[in-house]
Amino acid sequence: MPRIAYGRIAQETNTLSPVLSGVEDFRRTHFLEGADLLARTTSRWKFEAEGMARNAELSGFAQEAERRGATLVPLFSAWAIPGGPLTAEAMAYFEERLDRELRAAGPLDGVMLSMHGAMAAVGRVDPEADLQKVVHRAVPNAKFVVTHDLHGHLTAEKVANADAIVAYRTNPHRDHVRTGARAAEILMRTLAGEVRPTVAWRCLPLVLGGGLNIDFLAPMRGIYAFLTKLHRDPRVLTASIYQNHLWNEAPHAGWGVYVATNDDPALAEQLADEIAERCWAVRHEQPPAIPSPSEAVKEAREAVWARRAGVVCISDASDMVGAGAPGENTGLLAALVNEGQGLVSYAPVRDAEVVAALWETPLGERVTVRVGGKLATAIHTPIEVSGTLADRKVTAAFGRALLLDLGHVKLIVTEGAPLAMKPAFYTDWGLPMRKADIVVVKSLFPFRWYFLPYNRKTIYAGSRGTTDFDVWRHVSFDRPVFPKDPVKHWTDGVRPAR
Ligand SMILES: [Zn+2]
After folding, report:
1. Domain boundaries, the chain
2. Is the pTM of this model over 0.85?
3. Residue 494 pLDDT more than 70?
4. Rounded distance from Cα 443 to ligand 1 centre (Å)
5. How far apart are the first and last CA of the chain?
6. CA of 149 to the centre of ligand 1 (A)
7. Average pLDDT for residues 15-34, to the nearest whole number?
8. How far apart are CA 319 and CA 330, in angstroms?
9. H helices within 345-469, ranges in order?
């Protein structure tokens, strides 16, 4: 029976955020080791990632590999919410630990590592490829598969240092389990000698296109349907597209295409070209323009029916914690405070200094503080607010936190990044949805599921922050890319594809 080691080191990095991520950020979100990892990924009923997903890549992988006769060797699973780049210490920690555990694991036939694909680290060009090289050095003879988020960056080093890479095929992502299971299928069939993965990949000079990039909406629907069709072809082991990570300012960024066929390099090359051609064809479909905070508040005010029947969710598109922003932008908050009179609004802001300064202050006291804008000082500015200190709490996800009642705005001030994505973020503080007109979320899309019972209108508001859609205007790419530069065809100036 093949012995297979598996684990995860995953974080989606926003390189515009100056707030670096350490090992403690992984521990705070998700960190499993050894027997606990095995137990949580081999039972469908246990949570693989408490608070995030009952079953994800590692459950899909472990259960499929076991079904196909593998003996599982759990490594460790570390998964942090999106944030700034990893510290040099965190990278060194993961490299050392991965190397040590692989060498101590006994003879291994295969290894699977689940990663994001857009992780950045201080002083590293391609940290995930560095982790892949650790695997190759520690167990050079083992077959090795990797899973990615489709918002990763495909690079020559990543492709060269894995036998196969499997990426999500849904956005918003709903196929973590299937992605892991497919990786297990490819690995086990490769070890059994049934298949031999032959890979082709492309990197397109394209950083933004495909409209809203949602797999079940036009224009991406047709491309994802084509990938699904390819997966029914027994000659194809996996086919993925990478839709680029906008807020990971890699000079080599761009949409990617990855195809692995069974011992058929010519077919892999042909399909990679065909998928690339389809991606290039949707480049002109750019995301819709995003209103300013003032326009968003005005629009919410006019949405009388939506506010009566439920709430208006305003997504703070320039400060999406779900995409790695620090959560301290004050652009939208200022508009709610100054222009949202009469609209009961719930909003978060990150400010560890204010939390510390008011931690001993008696509840019910009037306070005036400058909140936000203290981390990414080049982009964000603090604003002054006055109100009553209404509550305080210690949370697992974002540390200590306060509730400031500013009148029509109920403001939650947090020590860590406030991932306001679910109603519980507010209802846990005794702020019921039925009393709110406007609820601020710091998430691009997942909040839509969680707020389904309450949300009657969604507005995206953009100010200036670390998750702006037009960030590509300021990035220095290593070649001309669309839409920044006029590029005639995706093959112009494309980097070598193998
Ligand atoms: Zn993603």
Report:
1. 3-280, 293-467
2. yes
3. no
4. 12
5. 33
6. 5
7. 94
8. 9
9. 352-358, 424-427, 447-450
